What does this fold into?
Amino acid sequence: MSALRERIQERARALGFDAVGIARADVPLGPEFERYVDFVRAGRHGSMGYLAAEPEARRRLDSEAILPGAKSVICLARRYARTPDDEASDPPLARRVARYARGQDYHNFLRKKVRALAAFVRTLGPEVRARPLCDEEPLLERAWAARAGVGFVGKNGLVIIPGQGSFVLLGEVVTTLALEPDQPIAERCGSCTLCLDACPTQAFDAPFVLDPRRCVAYLTIEDTAGDRAGVTEHLFGCDACQSVCPFNKTRAPAAPKTRPFRPLPVWEGLGLADLLRLDEPGFLALTTGSPLRRATRSGLARSAARLAQAEAAAGRATDDVRAALALGREHDDDIVRAITRGASDGER
Ligand code: B12
Ligand code: SF4
Ligand code: SF4
It folds into this structure.
């Protein structure tokens, strides 16, 4: 069994994964699932209705929804932190976007790698089944990664890998192959509360307990019907609770490893007004291959309008901000119009 483990770990690293851990898939989650149940009961999923669906799949991986007969889950992490030198040249508007989303949509290339590992696992025994998973299936990826010892869940709710940080994306291969599991690692936050204090919208009800309905990532990505009240600095997603974390002060990987996460060429020279000028074909062209597609055209326009409003209120009404506010007042989305009509042009 340990020879198989080593071969899997070796292949995962060759595919570019930075951490690999194995957990038993035939033992359901316990307290982690109870937390999920509390989460849904409290309505914390907000408009993310999919989070409340298929609860059984979130408890166990050897279910109909994931993989009947599953014995092991291979949990994978891929880093996306870039060096400060590399980030220094990011276009201004791209800096208002969470680091994971400035470049290519990670789902496309990460899924290919998770699929490649699943294909390899299938060769390791007769009739071995293996299912690749990455982000979209109804499972608690962080809870499984923590059980597999990939890292620990920090007070900011993110999986942190000691020595590598939390700027990582997770994926899994669930398989019928029985593999020796890894041990979970202890939580190491200690008395630190930097992430809780840095959250711009006070989205944590308690350490480890996030209310997504107040999280900038929810407000700017998932809540496509909302008006983004309270968002002042972010266009899409947020990194505040990770940027301050001491575990992220570790050296970032250099290019080419992080190349897919460098801002796409479309960011060059792009301003807020450009986002408020987009028609549907323009939005589709701008967001080709980018995670920003998820925000929708009106959602992105609302975030741009909030940014323009906040910049003007702070006395930073550049030509771009003024043009964005003017375009917003004529926008076809009523919430964009409402945000920008209430904004002054910032002349002080
Ligand atoms: C929906 C979702 C969101 C929502 C809701 C997040 C939430 N907290 O529920 C929103 C849009 C807000 C969001 C934001 C972000 N997300 Co998100 N998101 C997801 C998704 C699709 C489902 C999460 C889910 O099931 N939530 C329900 C709750 C109950 O589960 P959970 O948050 O995973 O919490 C578990 C553990 O944290 C742990 N836990 C919870 N409380 C406690 C308490 C203690 C004491 C302990 C020890 C453990 C513990 O147990 C919980 C389950 O029992 C996952 C992918 C997936 N399928 O898992 C990605 C995922 C969690 N997101 C990810 C990322 C990168 C982000 C952002 C950083 C993006 C950004 N830069 O803007 C932010 C981070 C916000 C934050 N501080 O958590 C990564 C996280 C990688 C990592 N290192 O952990 C994931 C895993 C996607 C991926 N495949 O890589 N996300
Ligand atoms: S991503 Fe931003 S808004 Fe969301 S919990 Fe972290 S710091 Fe708060
Ligand atoms: S900032 Fe501090 S409390 Fe928050 S996750 Fe990092 S170590 Fe833990």
